[in-house]
Amino acid sequence: MSPIDVPLLVVGGGIGGMSAALSLARAGHRVHLIEQAAEFAEVGAGLQLAPNATRALDRLGVLEPVLRRAVQPSLLQMLDAVDGEEISALDVGEAFVARYHAPYVVLHRHDLLSALLDACRAEEGIELETNRHVISCGVEPDRVTITCADGTVYRAGAVIGADGLRSRLRGLVSDDEPLATGYVAYRGPVPVDRVAGAIRMDAVVVWIGPGLHLVQYPLRHGQLLNQVAVFRSDRYEPHSDDWGSPEELRARFSTMCPAVAASVELLDQSMRWPMHDRQPIGNWTCGPVTLLGDAAHPMLQYLAQGACQALEDAVELGEQFVPGRDPEEAFRAYQAARIPRTGRVQASARAWGELWHLDGVARDVRNRYLRARRADDFVDIDWLYGADALSAVTASGS
Amino acid sequence: MSPIDVPLLVVGGGIGGMSAALSLARAGHRVHLIEQAAEFAEVGAGLQLAPNATRALDRLGVLEPVLRRAVQPSLLQMLDAVDGEEISALDVGEAFVARYHAPYVVLHRHDLLSALLDACRAEEGIELETNRHVISCGVEPDRVTITCADGTVYRAGAVIGADGLRSRLRGLVSDDEPLATGYVAYRGPVPVDRVAGAIRMDAVVVWIGPGLHLVQYPLRHGQLLNQVAVFRSDRYEPHSDDWGSPEELRARFSTMCPAVAASVELLDQSMRWPMHDRQPIGNWTCGPVTLLGDAAHPMLQYLAQGACQALEDAVELGEQFVPGRDPEEAFRAYQAARIPRTGRVQASARAWGELWHLDGVARDVRNRYLRARRADDFVDIDWLYGADALSAVTASGS
Fold first, then answer.
1. How far apart are CA A31 and CA A120, in angstroms?
2. Which residues of A touch B355 (CB under 8 A)?
3. For the purposes of burial, counting CB atoms within 10 Å of the CB of B176, is it exposed (0-12), middle (13-18) or buried (19 or more)?
4. In this structure, how many other beta carbons lie within 10 angstroms of the beta carbon of residue B287?
């Protein structure tokens, strides 16, 4: 086959790639997006979108369809998984929405991807292709050759690698590998009527305990309860899948308070999700190729910011990639804005997870400290959710 | 040699044994005290006496000579050994003294023992002997036979084992062993004029860091600075002395803030003190034999309560051992009052040490939590220093 010439190629049709395509198209570019799977689909479960993400969706013109499918909680609640006592709460109601000019919502991953896909399909400038598994990438100063497993070859003016945690394009700028944490997740939504006991349908609830946690929130107008159970396996070994089994899951959670112990019985235990991230890197760009989303900055899920940061990336990319500007120059400006902020989020997510999983006297002092905070004290989260977060990060450093 | 008949025998001439002898004599008993060393002497360094201990000394009639030799600080200060920043402070000035009806003082261990020794020698009812190393102990319902290495045999109506961490008499009630912690201490006073840099002469200062800490306070009217440097050795192995070396000490403290790093250069590095405690036990009494001080409840030093609890033991023992009462009955009443409280202090000392030695995000949250406390907030320490601590403990449980 002869090469297909495309001005701008996005590799990866997940939340990051789709929103990048949308952002670039809205900025006046023709975009070609390729996805390795046969269909555009998000596996898994629910997703949290903090105000920094809902503001980005607004900029991309897809907030309205997202809100139609989302649940807007009034509270983020943290409880101790051992004794069941509340540790802290963050009021994400009116005052929160007013402060951050956007709501905190939760929805099914599939619903977010559908909204993005619908918007991409409605854009004349976007072409979407599935079944394109990238196997090699050749970079020259003003063009990139991308070869797929099915023989398709693209000759692109510039490429955005939105190909996830195990990004192939990341190899152009770094030889690092995903870092295993020894933690594994089991997740999925369950019909609400199968859940015994009282459930808050107005809250995102996280139960935190020694080396484990459980997140619960409603989806689809409260018909589903999304659950994510995460624990550190005592049997973790590198380069093995023989750890973090459903038996371990049940054994670990069985010692927690009754509400938490009962929750894992309902979880889908057929899929285990080992948790990874990577260290922040100082450069995402190689000539006219750059990275976006998990390919650029995979992070642990403790701040629920993986998709949110990809959406921020997409908005920034669209702003920097003005027509006529040299792609490499645009990518350099994009990464200059994004690397400090995403690095801080990666590091903070790790620290936040460490805090959740403390044991012994450290757990006790954490609970005392967090209990002293007020539900309307937003100062500590302004850096993350704040409206000027993008511009503020460069000034504040870390 | 024919056995020496004594009504009451105290085994051990340290702070616990000496104060027990004094308390029993003041209660109207004739007391025989034996010590294995050739002289009554306390090795080591300084000692902190919290109000619960100075009140006990007052009851024993030796507070006045102790205060003459002690320094009375106005502040207990806690700093972060890594960055040198203050974490918290407790004002132990007038309001503290008024609340607890006694002062917080520091002095040389030798000076406290001297004051107790002088008081014992001034008591007609007390006989003191050195060079008596106990090698066996035979218990019958109404008498105890104690045999020493030099052939001396005592036939006692009752025995108080104040023979320290490695108590021989504890073997009558428990087969437990001292628990090594992997921590080692280096300690000793240094002349103040050898110390470079500013020193607070009105404070007990503790620098806390990941797996280590340093305590500093003035002794002898401010002529000496007492120092205790403690760290967890990475090379710890059970049943070995080949860990916690001076080289490790210097290497570990060299990464701390300059004031802390410099301090260890002045420390006497010829003696290492591995740190031990034991689990609390539920019975100290076997017939007419009971335990007191470290023999009964050895504890980690993090609350500086080892000597303080021995002094409390002595006062309680004197109160329960009324003339004419059956010794075993008196000992049962004594341990009923003392075991819950000393068990709580042992457990709290461990937890307090764990808190001091936190690293990472746990260290950060600890500092934030402790910084929020006021210097005159005494509520958390009432249980330990409070005037009704002895009677309150039984009610409060743990």
1. 10
2. 361-362, 365
3. exposed
4. 17
Determine which of A364, A365, A371 to mutate to test the interface with B (most B C-beta atoms within 10 Å).
A365
* pLDDT tens digits, A211-254: 999 999 999 888 899 999 999 999 999 888 899 999 999 999 99
pLDDT value at A327 more than 90: yes
- Chain B residues near residue A366 by CB distance under 8 angstroms: 362, 365, 369
Interface pTM, i.e. ipTM? 0.73
pLDDT of residue A29: 95
Parallel/antiparallel/unpaired status of strands B4-11 and A224-232: unpaired
Contact B360 A354 (CB under 8 A): yes
> pLDDT band at residue B388, thresholds of 50, 70 and 90?
low
Q: Say whether B365 and A366 touch across the interface (CB within 8 A).
A: yes
Q: Is A347 an 8 Å CB contact of chain B? A: no
How confident is the model over B194-208, as a mean pLDDT? 86
Residue A126 reports pLDDT greater than 50: yes
Q: Which residues of B touch A362 (CB under 8 A)?
A: 354-355, 358, 362, 365-366
Helix axes B109-122, B15-26, angle to 10 degrees: 30
CB contact under 8 A, A354 and B368: no
Indicate the Cα dihedral angle B59, B62, B67, B70, nearest 10°. Answer: -110
- A333 within 8 A of A323, measured Cβ to Cβ: no
Measured between its terminal Cα atoms, the distance across chain A in Å is 48
pLDDT value at B221 more than 50: yes
Task: State the Rg of chain B over Cα.
Answer: 21
A355 → closest Cβ in B354, B365, B369: B365
**Is residue B355 less than 8 Å (CB to CB) from chain A?**
yes
> Domains in chain B, start-ordered, CATH in brackets?
4-67+105-177+279-353 (3.50.50.60)
Q: What pLDDT is stored for residue B57 in this prediction?
A: 98
Mutation target to probe the A interface, by most A beta carbons within 10 A, among B364, B365, B370 is B365
A355 contacts in B (CB within 8 Å)? 361-362, 365
DSSP A102-139: S--EEEEHHHHHHHHHHHHHH-TTEEEE-S--EEEEEE
* CA gap B263, B59 in Å, rounded: 37
> Could you give the residue numbers annotated as active site of A?
217
CA B5 to chain centre: 31
| Contact by Cβ (8 Å): A377, A366 | no
Say which residue the tokens 């802290």 belong to. Answer: A88
Alpha-carbon span B6 to B1, nearest angstrom: 15
Contacts of A18 (CB under 8 A, 6+ apart): A33, A40, A113, A116, A117, A120
Bridge-partner residues for A179, per DSSP? A277
Out of B354, B364, B369, whose CB is closest to A368? Answer: B369
pLDDT (tens digit, 9 = 90+) per residue, A62-119? 999 999 999 999 999 999 999 999 999 999 999 999 999 999 999 999 999 999 999 9
| Inter-chain touch B361–A355, beta carbons under 8 Å | yes
Buried/exposed A43-72: b ≥16 CB within 10 Å, e otherwise = ebbbbbbbbbbbbbbbbbebbebbbebbbb
Give the model confidence (pLDDT) of B358-377 as tens digits.
999 999 999 999 998 888 88
pLDDT band at B15 (very low <50, low <70, confident <90, very high): very high
Instruction: Give the contacts of A267 (CB within 8 A, at least 6 positions apart).
Output: A186, A187, A188, A190, A227, A229, A249
Q: Give the max Cα distance, chain B.
A: 66
Residues of chain B in contact with residue A349, where contact means CB-CB under 8 angstroms, are none
Place of tokens 């102990």: B137
- List pLDDT tens digits, range B69-100: 999 999 999 999 999 999 999 999 999 999 99
**Is A251 in the B-facing interface, judged by CB distances under 8 Å?**
no
Cα–Cα distance, B45 to B53 (Å, whole number): 18
